[in-house]
Amino acid sequence: MKYLPRLGLIMIFISFGSAWASPGISYVPLPTTHHSSRDGMGVFYHKEHGGMELLTGVPYEDLQCKNCHHKSGKLPNGKPLPYAYKSSCEDCHNFYENPSVKSPDVCLECHSRQRSELAYFKQLPEPKDLDWQDVHFREGMTCISCHTGDQLHDSADNQLSMLDPRGNDARCEDCHEPDRLTPDNHALHGDRVACATCHIKSVFTCNNCHFDTELAVQGKFKRATGKERDFIMLVNRRGYGPRGNDQVHPATYQSVVYQGKSFYTIAPFFSHTVMQEAHECKYCHDSQALKEYDDSGKITVSKWSKEKNKPLVSKGMIPIPPDWQRALQFDFADFTGNFNKPGQKDKWKFLKKGADLMQMFPDFVYPLTNTQLDKLRVPADKLPLTKQNVLKRRGIDLPGLKSGFTSKPQAVPPKVSPGKELPHN
After folding, report:
1. Helix H segments across 163-218?
2. Coil, helix or strand at residue 319
3. 85-106 residue pLDDT tens
4. Which residues pair with residue 74 across a beta bridge?
5. What is the chain's percent helix, strand, coil content, to nearest 5?
6. Beta carbons of 57 and 63 less than 8 angstroms apart
7. Is 377 left (phi over 0), alpha (psi -120 to 50) or beta?
8. Which H helix or E strand runs over 116?
């Protein structure tokens, strides 16, 4: 009889293991997965990591941020969220249905930036610019087409966040074999530049979040000056390449204000606005932000607009230089309305220029080097000859590249939808 409790426990694990398993996959969910522990959510906040807690003095354990749960207020199986909420397998799974996870609906309940990306495309007027719709979503793929059950259920021991090189096993190279890609730019950049650097339309951010409101309403809604897009920051991401090498990678930022104090953090970010065609070379090379840096030593990221009554974010490619703490320029706004009521977009006022605290987590990312900035300084019209010389040194001869060759745009004109008969979901 004394073995019966152990036998019952074993049977429970066997039962749950078979319920969660799918063909070719055998795993049992672990309490140390990122989705279960959610430790990664606090990494950028903790004071020991140079986070915003240094300004607020409010421990992460006292915030509602850690209790990320369904926006609908219900679990996938329709049950209301329990009052004493704790993360569980039921956050994603409805074990009464097959498949037990409805992707992307369930995923988008928590992954708000991806939800914002999809919402932005849906609200575009007809004819829609299809470059704002991720090419994979357009072909019928969903989140779990790339982010497999093995990854989502794997142990996150010794990983601070999903931004850890081992925290995400979805790679473009898993499906797009490098040897089958066109040789010109792909051979030129090799695995030193992440695919997303050239192939995403834009990164997203929620600009100038008002942390006082977050505390006042216990996370029921968020208040910011706006959702921003049409820009990409460039950084070096540690260990993200196919050989475990560092790569030039897109990044975004999060800016926050609290009781008159300002903060921003920069992190690598893979926006799900992947385009089939890449950006033109001039998008990164000799960009406006880089010219501003060379002229003044500054890069304007956000600047207060009296007409819009909010800070506006610069467009295009923003390289993050070695002296980023001094070079990057942010304007911040403060909210003067009722913290407990949403809306009130006219209640923002200019707060200050400059951040009281800034952060770039060195375990995941570091700024571009001066050598990399020099490469980005090559004007687009000089690139063909430079490209030819570099490729020849690598034993690649492209007949179309000759001295005096005029640079042509690499990207085709934006594809637009013909009308409402094309589904966009």
Report:
1. 183-189, 195-199, 211-216
2. strand
3. 778 888 889 989 998 999 999 9
4. 80
5. 35, 20, 50
6. no
7. alpha
8. helix 112-123
